[in-house]
Structures are given as structure tokens and as C-alpha cells.
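User: Some background: our group keeps a shared notebook of sequences we're curious about, and every so often someone picks one and asks for a predicted structure to add to the entry. Today it's my turn. The entry only has the sequence so far, pasted here. Could you supply the structure so I can complete it?
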Amino acid sequence: MKYAKPLPFKEAATAAQARTLLPTAMRTAEFEQLVADGHAAVLERARFSAGVRKVEHLQVLDDGINDLVAGQTDLATARLAVKRFVRGTGYLAPAEERGTLTDLASDARTNLQLTMGVQQAQGYGWWKQGQQEDVLDAFPADAFVRVESRVKPREDWPERWNAARAATVTDGATDSSSGRMVALKNHPIWAKLSRFGTPYEPFDFGSGRGVEDVSRKDAMDLGLIGRDTQIFPQDRPFNEGLQAAPAVRSERLRALLESTGLGKFNADGVFVATTPQA
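Assistant: Of course. Here's the predicted structure to add to the notebook entry:
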């Protein structure tokens, strides 16, 4: 069962606290390229936000996210702490950007940073809990469903689902034309469907879409699994990072990011994207 507000369960709290602070000049499109090139696991281990170059800014965000996941604060309090820090730096967005998502001091940007951090931690926690053998046996599949209402919901999810299915494995996942988007829990479609390259919620910024358990009987009726087929639990490389000391995680993260060829860390520790050669 899932809940509408943050819950201090171990898996989510651990995932939130394990992220290495990553100040960077990269923008959203550059992060998406990192995912497209197969390096989503690098970002999964980092606390970052497009264009945030100050590690102190990331630390305030990280503290707020950790407290929200643990149920020790509320969004308004966490948002106020972030906004006070940003204003204290003397930051002021250009007039045409004020109040928008590119304005680091705006409610819209701060809410997105905090809620995405919480959702990613909870998404990992729910995914991790769903990897128990008895859960996989009874509920081997997930349905991709709307979990929150939106004034203007995205209409392209069926097309995105089918594109992800075609790019991975068609067996074990329905075609959206069937009227349902359902796949086995450990099917590669989930990571492919995600804008962030992870097999758990959220699958995009503010999408309002998530997953719910599908029983073995339902999955069998959909032709996704046999009566005696066993689904084995998975673990993510992310867990290796959770066990490492902060300095080691940071060194590995830097090496992984630089190995992508997308940029280098400068003398101040900020990751700067490399300008593509013509």
C-alpha cells in the first residue's frame, strides 16, 4: 500500500541519505543526455539540480529532503529554508525568469526540487520493498496508472510506453492498445520509460503517473507470466554506493561522470559540460 505523504521507512530514508552532493553547471538537457548514454546510475547516486553550482545550496536541499522523507518537517518549512539560503547569497534571477522554474529562488523551482527528491527516495523504497520473494510471487507485475490528478495530464504516455516496449522486450509487457499498460516488475521497460532511467517512480517531472501491484492471476490472464514462472529479486548497483564512505562515493561519482565525456570537474569542484566539437 502506498501513502500520499512521506513516510519514514528504512529503504526511502537510506536512499535519500546516500546521495553525494554534486554541484554542476549542467542543464536539464545535458542530464537527459547522460541518461540516454546509459549513465543513469551515476545520477541515481547524486544530489544535484540543474544549474546549481553551490554545494551549500545542495546541502540545504538535501537536508530538507531527508527531513521530509523522515516525516520530521513539512514542505512549507523545507521550502522556506531553501529560499532563505538562496536569498542570502544575493542571487537574483533575470527579470524575465523570476517566478519560473529557472529561477532558483522561486516557489515553483524549490517545490520541484524538494518534491522530486522525496518522490525519488520513496520510489526507490517502494521498489526495494517490492523485490521480496513473496511479493514477487503474489504480485509479479505492475500496472502503469494515474496516481495523482492533473489539470492537463500528459496524453503521450501510451505512445511512450509502446516505444519503451519496442526498444526493450515485448514479452512480459502489454501493448498500450490493449487498454492497460502492465509489465512484469523487473521488465526493462520501466527504466526505459523513465525520463531518469530508473525503474521506479517518478517517471517524469510532475507526471502524476505511478505503479500499482498486479496479481499473478491478472498477469496470467494478460499473458505476461505462467502459473509456475518464478520472478527473482533484483538489486541495484545503487546499493553498492550506499555502503561506501562519502569520500569514496564522491571519488567514484566524479570518475564515472568524467568517463562519460560530457564534462570535467573544475578547480572549484563544479562539473562543467564539455562543448561539443563541430
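Suggested note for the entry: The beta strands are 20-21, 46-47, 141-146, 182-184, 209-214, 263-265, 271-273. The chain has a mean pLDDT of 88.
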